[in-house]
Design goal:
212 residues; Growth Hormone, Chain: A
Length: 212
């Protein structure tokens, strides 16, 4: 049955969705910054080791157990955070991870001996375990297949960059004491959470080809 000549033809409405060209690369920059801060926090202890031996009376054996506590928590929580990020979503899961490790980094300033310092390292390792599961999933969500290897390579350079900049930064802030060397690391993480909850929180910036 043909429509009457006077019948109006329904045209598709133009999309009102606001998109920002190449916004995914801003997301990649955030992932790079998070991975860099993650490793700066992680490597602070190796730079501070001589200082800790005098301030907290930490022996070589104590240091070994402290490192073990971090690695144990990190290994266990990788899968836990991976599951949590799948359930909660990348943004919320990443925000929890960054907030967790930032608070744990600041808690090092409260340590008064090997046990309390080891507990802080354990919590730091548990929180930092969420970084790579969240970053990998973010790349899959924001980037088309043809760009995912490049994006992964960029954010995965964060650990090496963190290893490069950690020694001079930590040596410089150690003059402020133990608290001065851990508070800046933790505060940087909270700035990242602000970005996750602010301009980078909206999926409107994701271009249409991200799923291709």
């Amino acid at each position: 049955m043909t429509k009457p000549a006077h019948a109006q033809v329904q045209l598709p409405r133009p999309s009102t969705r606001f998109t920002i060209p190449h916004f995914r690369w801003a997301v990649c920059a955030l992932l790079l910054a998070a991975s860099t801060i993650n490793y700066v926090d992680r490597l602070t202890i190796s730079v501070l080791k001589p200082h800790l031996e005098g301030v907290l009376n930490i022996s070589e054996s104590d240091y070994g157990w402290i490192v073990f506590a971090f690695q144990l928590a990190y290994a266990v929580m990788l899968s836990v955070f991976g599951l949590a990020i799948d359930r909660l979503g990348t943004r919320l899961g990443y925000a929890i991870s960054i907030t967790w490790w930032s608070i744990a980094a600041m808690m090092h300033a409260l340590a008064r001996g090997a046990v309390s310092f080891g507990a802080a390292r354990f919590l730091l390792g548990a929180g930092e375990a969420g970084n790579f599961p969240a970053a990998v999933k973010a790349v899959a969500e924001w980037f088309p297949k043809k760009e995912r290897a490049l994006a992964t390579g960029i954010f995965n350079s964060g650990p090496t960059l963190g290893a490069i900049i950690a020694p001079p930064i930590v040596v410089w802030v150690t003059a402020l004491g133990l608290a001065g060397s851990v508070y800046p690391d933790g505060s940087c993480g909270f700035h990242l959470v602000d970005l996750l909850d602010g301009p980078l929180s909206s999926s409107a910036g994701a271009s249409a080809d991200c799923r291709q």
